[in-house]
Known about the structure:
Blueprint: H1 3-50, H2 70-100, H3 107-182, H4 185-194, H5 197-206, H6 209-217, H7 221-241
Helix pairs in contact: 1-2, 3-5, 4-6, 5-7
Amino acid sequence: xxxxxxxxxxxxxxxxxxxxxxxxxxxxxxxxxxxxxxxxxxxxxxxxxxxxxxxxxxxxxxxxxxxxxxxxxxxxxxxxxxxxxxxxxxxxxxxxxxxxxxxxxxxxxxxxxxxxxxxxxxxxxxxxxxxxxxxxxxxxxxxxxxxxxxxxxxxxxxxxxxxxxxxxxxxxxxxxxxxxxxxxxxxxxxxxxxxxxxxxxxxxxxxxxxxxxxxxxxxxxxxxxxxxxxxxxxxxxxxxxxxxxxx
Length: 247
């Protein structure tokens, strides 16, 4: 067979094969363009919502760029939605916290609070001063109680001493009374003429009347009259306080 006839027969096969290859390439290019367009729209929407720049797609080893995978875009979208949901959930909490916080006081309120604080401090200082004075008063009262107890003890001791002294004096006076009662009236009258009235009256008061009468009769009438008047006055006073010592 001649060469021209053989070439004519192969030409349709080559054309058909080239057309098939071209169709396949066009289909692949269309699919790739569709994926690029879908990814670009998803990235643009995410960029508009978050206002954050996205990093450019990584370059291939040979310098060509590849469009992001659809699965990766969906995962990024899900993460962004979760972040948005978290921000949406946190917003009411922040608003509630802001509502729960009390408002700041005004300058007038601050002045009132400062005045109240100063007043409270002054009251605390006054309370401390009163407590200190109370402690001092209690200590003074304790000292006074001790001194009063000492005075009572001294009074008891003094009363005993006075009683003892009075008993001793009474015993001495009664001894003198017995002496004068046993003396002769004239001798006793001479001694009574010389004694002071402070000493004479206690003795005369304790003498028996039947022993005293002769002695007074032997004395100077003026002196006897004075002794009688003082003795009556003394017995009148004694009648209001207790029995007389005369027999």
